[in-house]
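Weekly sync, protein design subgroup
Attendees: M.S., D.O., the rotation student, P.L. (late)

Item 1: inverse folding check
M.S. brought a backbone from last month's batch and wanted to see whether the design step gives back something sensible before we order anything. D.O. pointed out we never logged the input encoding, so this time it goes straight into the notes. Structure tokens as presented (354 positions):
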């Protein structure tokens, strides 16, 4: 017979006795076995009963004990960024690959989508709804990290630079990509290039990209401009009108997949042909790149690789492995149809009869 008190957790504070599954069951008006099934997911429980048990777990501050291993729920939670801070193409690729990797390893995925970022994690970790947590777009000062540390559950931070002791991280090294973008356009003869950045730089790797971009511009004697640009039709129009007045740059690097289709559309509206008048390099998911009228030259964000790697890192910890060293993925530049020789280079070739 299962001893349901064995999965009770430590006191919630102040020397108070530990809350047990029996306490939760009595408060929720259900059996201890029902509470256990809600936690482990081993049996189907009606939505109403599940909600009542989960609310009781939160109200009583129940936590699973950190001593003996508790039954697995067979679930990995994935905490997504706030809704106003999303890159949907990347997330779709990430989730698809993560779901496939999880399925192969015998796990399901649970998305945590609350706006604050911490409430959902408190609910998932305190109610033992998931065995491990994957946090997307984690930052150095991310408020979700203390929740994970307090829970004691295995976690993988996607985007953090690996500064949290005991937590595994998977990060993107975009510094080589910044240099590759500038070098590609400089090799085509572009002497002025603009880097359109997110208006609020949520991308944690943006600094490394920008630094290497500008360093390469200095080495190649190319004028490099950084221009924040929000993913709205009005702001994109304003940015491009300012940049392209009196000639302006002949090369653009668009560093936000939500902004890319707006940039391409606005250039067409302004009578600027891509790549004849303006060359465009995109930093985006392969999904978004494939949706454009022409296939852009792209720094492809390897979201699928990140998804599968994150799941494997999480399950490795559940199987007794230590928190691994930070995993690093390096995006690469793939040449497409949106970049060509600068207009001045083509004109010079035409005049010389080349």
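Designed sequence read out in the meeting:
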């Amino acid at each position: 017979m299962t001893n349901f008190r064995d999965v009770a957790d430590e006191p919630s504070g102040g020397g108070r006795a530990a809350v047990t599954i029996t306490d939760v069951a009595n408060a929720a008006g259900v059996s201890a076995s029902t509470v256990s099934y809600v936690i482990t997911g081993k049996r189907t429980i009606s939505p109403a009963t599940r909600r009542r048990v989960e609310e009781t777990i939160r109200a009583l501050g129940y936590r699973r004990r950190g001593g003996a291993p508790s039954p697995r729920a067979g679930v990995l939670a994935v905490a997504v960024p706030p809704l106003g801070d999303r890159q949907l193409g990347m997330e779709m690729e990430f989730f698809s690959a993560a779901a496939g990797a999880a399925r192969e390893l015998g796990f399901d995925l649970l998305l945590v989508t609350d706006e604050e970022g911490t409430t959902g994690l408190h609910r998932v970790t305190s109610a033992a709804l998931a065995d491990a947590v994957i946090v997307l777009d984690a930052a150095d000062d991310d408020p979700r990290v203390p929740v994970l540390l307090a829970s004691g559950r295995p976690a993988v931070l996607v985007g953090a630079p690996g500064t949290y002791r005991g937590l595994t991280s998977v990060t993107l090294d975009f510094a080589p990509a910044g240099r590759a973008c500038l070098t590609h356009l400089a090799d085509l003869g572009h002497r002025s290039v603009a880097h359109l950045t997110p208006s609020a730089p949520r991308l944690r790797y943006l600094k490394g990209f920008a630094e290497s971009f500008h360093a390469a511009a200095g080495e190649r004697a190319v004028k490099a401009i950084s221009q924040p640009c929000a993913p709205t039709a009005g702001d994109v129009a304003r940015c491009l009108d300012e940049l392209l007045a009196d000639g302006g740059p002949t090369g653009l690097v668009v560093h936000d997949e939500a902004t890319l289709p707006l940039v391409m559309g606005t250039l067409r509206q302004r009578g600027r042909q891509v790549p004849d008048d303006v060359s465009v390099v995109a930093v985006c998911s392969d999904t978004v790149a494939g949706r454009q009228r022409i296939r852009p030259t792209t720094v492809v964000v390897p979201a699928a690789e990140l998804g599968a790697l994150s799941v494997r890192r999480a399950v490795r910890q559940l199987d007794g492995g230590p928190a691994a060293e930070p995993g690093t993925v390096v995006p690469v530049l793939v040449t497409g149809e949106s970049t060509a020789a600068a207009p001045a280079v083509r004109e010079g070739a035409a005049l010389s009869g080349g």
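Discussion: Residues 88-104 form the longest helix (17 residues). The first strand starts at residue 75 and ends at 79.
Action: P.L. to compare against the previous round before Friday.
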